[in-house]
Amino acid sequence: MRFVLLGGAVFAASLLVVRGQIGVPSDLPLPVLIAVSAAAGVAAWQARRSWWPLAAVSAVGYAWLAMWPPLLVASYCAGLTLRGRRIAAYLGGCLAVCGAAALVGEHQGGSHRLMTASPGNALMVALVVIGLPLALGLSVRATREAATERARRLEREQVMRAEQARAQERARIAREMHDVVAHRVSLIVLHAGALEVRTADEETARAAAMIGGIGREALTNLRDVLGVLRSPTSEAGRRPPPTLGDLDRLLDQSRTLGIAVTRRDEGETRPIEASVERTAYRVVQEALTNVHKHAGDAATDVLIRYGPGELEVEVRNQAPGSPPEELPGAGWGLVGLRERVELLGGTLRTSAQDGGGFLVSARIPT
Asked: Which segments does the entry list as coiled coil (predicted)?
C-alpha cells in the first residue's frame, strides 16, 4: 500500500514540476507530460521489486525535462540497496545525468538553463535531490542492519541461555539417576552375585545368575543414558539401541525367570527402519515387564506381523489379573510407550481380555 501511495505522490509531483507549478515548465503537450509523469509514478510503485526502472526514468526525466521527483526517490532507494563500488557508480551516473541536463538547459535557455546549467543552482539541486536522499537511505539502511544484528544477537543469546539451562537440567537428572538408580541396581547385582555363590540350590543359583546378568545389562544401558544426558552430541562409547534382532535374547531372559513365552512371526520378514524396530522391541520389553509385575508366571504369546505398510506387535498373556493401569503407581511405562509409538505415526492399544489376561498391541507404519 505504501508503494502505491509513493507512486501516486511521484506522479503528482512530477506533473506539477513539468507544468511549471513547482519546477521548470515544459512546452510539450499535456498528454505527453501526463504520460511521462505516469511512467515515473509506475516506476516508483514498482521500486519494491526493482528500483532500476525508476533510476532509468529519473535519468531521462531530469536530463530532458528537469523532472526531479523520481530522481529524489531513486537516490533514496540507491542508499537503501547499493553498497561499495555501486554507490560510486551511481554517483558517477548522476554526474553524467546532471551534465546532460546542463547541456539541454543551455540549448533551451530560460528557466530550464537557470536551474540546470547555472553552477550554483545545479549544485544546490544535486545536493538536495541526489545527495541528501542518498545519505538518508544509507542512514536508514545502517539503522535497520544494526537493529537486525541486535535482534539476531539477542536470539543467539536466548538460544545459548536455553541450551545452558537444558544442559544444567540434563546434568542434574544424570546425577540423580547415578546416585539413586545406579546405586540401587548395583546393590541388586551384588546381592544376586552373593546369592549365586552361597546358595546350594542349583535352580536358585541360576535365577541369581540371571538376575545379576540383567542387572549388569541394566547398568550398561543406564551408563549409555547418562552419557547421552551429560553429552548429547557425543557418540563415543555408546552402544547401538536394541532392535528386533535382539528380541530372542529378551524372550530368553523371561523364560529363564519362569515365564513360558512363545514367539510367532507372520508375513514376509524384511528389513525395516531402525527406529521402527527399536520401538517394536520396546513394546515387547514393556509388555513383558508388566507380565512379570502383574501376572506372575502367566504364559505369554508374542506376535510380530509384517504387513504391507506397517509392523504389528502383539503381546498377550493368558492369566487373569488386573491391568497395569488399575494398580497404584503403575501404567507410566505404557504412557511413555504410547508416546514413542505415536511419534512414529502408529497406535498403541492396551486392554484386559474377556477370558482373563492382558493385551498390548501396537501398529507402526514402516
From this structure: none
The string of DSSP letters for 105-159 reads HHHH-HHHHHHHTSHHHHHHHIIIIIIHHHHHHHHHHHHHHHHHHHHHHHHHHHH
Contact of 185 with 215, CB cutoff 8 Å: yes
Q: Would you list the DSSP string of 205-253?
A: HHHHHHHHHHHHHHHHHHHHHHHHHH-TT--TTPPPPP-GGGHHHHHHH
In the chain, the percentage of residues whose pLDDT exceeds 70 is 92
Starting at the edge strand found earlier in the chain, the sheet holding 310-317 runs 261-266, 300-306, 310-317, 358-365, 347-352
**Per-residue pLDDT tens over the stretch 247-287:** 888 888 888 777 888 999 988 888 888 888 888 998 998 88
Q: Which H or E run includes 176? A: helix 132-176
The pLDDT value given to residue 327: 40
Whether the Cβ atoms of residue 323 and residue 295 lie closer than 8 Å to each other: no
What are the residues whose beta carbons fall under 8 Å from the beta carbon of 269, sequence distance 6 or more?
Answer: 306
The cell numbers describing 303, all together, are: 506376535
In degrees rounded to 5, what are phi and psi of residue 262? -115, 145
Cβ atoms of 139 and 132 closer than 8 Å: no
Q: How many angstroms separate the CA atoms of 200 and 11, rounded?
A: 105
Q: What CA–CA distance (Å, rounded) separates 295 from 321? A: 6
